[in-house]
Amino acid sequence: MTFQFLRDIIEKKLKTLQPKTYTKEKHGIQLDAIDNHAFYVIQKLRQAGYEAYLVGGSIRDLLLQTTPKDFDISTSAKPEEIKKLFRGCILIGKRFRLAHIRFGKKVIEVSTFRSGDIENSTFIVRDNDWGSAEEDVLRRDFTINGLFYDPQKELLLDYVGGYLDSQKRILRTIGNPEIRFRQDPVRMIRLIKFRARFALNIDPAAEEALHKCKEDIIKSSQARILEELLRMLESGSSEPFFRYLSDYGLLYLLMPSLARYLTDKPEETFSLLKQVDKNPKGIQRPILMSCLVFPLFSERLHAQSQKEKNIHLGIITEEANHSIDAIFRPFFSIPRKMKGIMASLLASQFRFTPLSDKFKKRLRIPRDPSFPLSLEFFKLRAEISSHLFETYHLWHETHKKSPHHHRRR
Ligand code: ATP
Ligand code: MG
């Protein structure tokens, strides 16, 4: 008993690594690229006697020469202790508890060092075992996401070889990729996300593990995956992301109808995504999601209109709902409100480009509150099919003059 206890301690000591450190001359991160509030939070945590570092996405983005969108902090302080130090701090999350510190509109995310078992492939349900700084790095997903930065000393701390991987532009899991994917299959989606976003090369072992583990993806929470997909639609790299998702066979597992459709007819969907990628800021989520549905929906509707003559808006809306279900239903549950807006937005497209001439009546702006979104989506279509542009302009002008115009937004 005692012997085993001692052995555990010695083993643990042996495993404790010293991080490689890189000074400013080497890593090149400029202090003024670091968010002031994040700097302040780190300072305050340290003054209170805790360890605190910048970690994860922001450091990766700076090393890969892109602008970080948020600055996450990792600390030895427990969630309740963080809360005591900062006004405007709330604790969130169950599977993964963390602190959000609010500064006006900005939120700085602070998480407590966690330990995670990276040698056991059991599916992770909760992730709230506190640990040391080093353990906190080891439970992270990829080496480039596992770097700590100390803004006071301007030092990069690297336990996992993430700095060199960032220079060689390699995506490598921390630990054995198969184990890490089995523990949390969402990491496979994240692998593809970083490849799409930064055009990184995937480490061959990770690529092999991806092929081996991909079926596990459907064990993950649909809400987490949906969130990753939405974030990618907003990222400016949605087109390569969905291409890789399809190439690696994950799309087929998550959205089989879309995967089959894209194998057959990839052009229209990818053109829409490419257009979105040019300027994704401010495009609302129902529009982004509709890019995945519209081409299939439109095809189905045209097929239907060959058989039936009088397809009115009610039938079109019904078909829009069917198409949304066909694409998302097998795995995802789209929030009811979002689905309603998407169906109306998709159906409205056939006000602009009616299925038959019979419906080419005068332009009438409906009261439908999602009409402005429908028009915005139509603009996206017009941007990739120039023959639609004149029609778009007509509707746009009419809409500007309409009494319903200023009601939303
Ligand atoms: P983004 O720029 O899209 O926010 P990110 O890498 O910052 O990318 P987050 O979801 O914000 O992604 O996660 C923050 C950090 O938490 C990551 O950099 C990574 O170190 C760690 N992390 C996130 N998800 C996982 C996961 N599924 N498994 C292990 N570590 C993870
Ligand atoms: Mg992040």
Provide structural commentary.
There is one protein chain. By secondary structure, the chain is α+β, with helices and mostly antiparallel strands. An 8-stranded mixed β-sheet has the order 1-8-7-2-3-6-5-4. A two-stranded parallel ribbon has the order 9-10. β7 and β8 form a beta hairpin. The protein starts with a helix and ends in an 8-residue tail after the last helix. The relative contact order is 0.06. The model has no long low-confidence stretch (mean pLDDT 92). Bound molecules: adenosine-5'-triphosphate and magnesium ion.
Main sheet specs: 8 strands, mixed
Could you say which small molecules are bound to this protein?
A: adenosine-5'-triphosphate, magnesium ion
Mean pLDDT: 92
Q: Based on the structure, what is the oligomeric state of the protein chains?
A: single chain
Helix % is 40-55%
CATH topology of the domain at 17-168: Beta Polymerase, domain 2
**How many β-strand runs?**
10
Overall geometry comes to elongated
Spatial order of the strands forming the largest sheet? 1-8-7-2-3-6-5-4
Tell me the radius of gyration.
25 Å
- What structural class do the secondary elements suggest? alpha+beta
Task: Give unreliable regions as ranges.
Answer: none
Question: Which percent range describes the beta-strand content?
Answer: 5-15%
What is the name of the CATH class of the domain at 17-168? Alpha Beta
- What is the helix tally? 20
Task: Note the run of SSEs as H and E.
Answer: HEHHEHEHEEEHEEHEHHEHHHHHHHHHHH
> What is the fourth-level CATH superfamily of the domain at 17-168?
Beta Polymerase, domain 2
